[in-house]
Amino acid sequence: MPDQEDTTPWALMGGTANVLALAEAFYDAMDATEPALAALHELDGDGRVSRRSRDRFGLFLVGWLGGPQDYMALHGHPRLRMRHAQVPVDAAMRDAWVRCMTRALDAREVSGPVREHLDARFSDVAEFLRNRG
Predict the structure, then answer these.
(1) CATH code where residue 14 lies
(2) N- or C-end of the chain: fewer Cβ atoms within 10 A?
């Protein structure tokens, strides 16, 4: 019987490098298709979501999907709702975020049961963070 760790989304996606690539694809999709959403983030000199934001989200995603908890070691508990309280997350922003993640999952060719799980979880989290109508 495989270790429980082998069945985490992180493991099923192939580990840290693939999860970090998903985070990159997510922000690339945001930069390319959702300028209003991108504008809510720290941007670099080229008007793209900053390296700092990308790296921080990548670390978060690795831990959230069951990989090493480096985000927690560096930044503490994510406290997603608290950290997003000052960000106006309405239904349009929620949907834009989900569209970016869907594009990223497509770009990284995530499929099968792990894709079904991630589609549902990302939608749940996006709705959880909605703080406006």
Answers:
(1) 1.10.490.10
(2) N
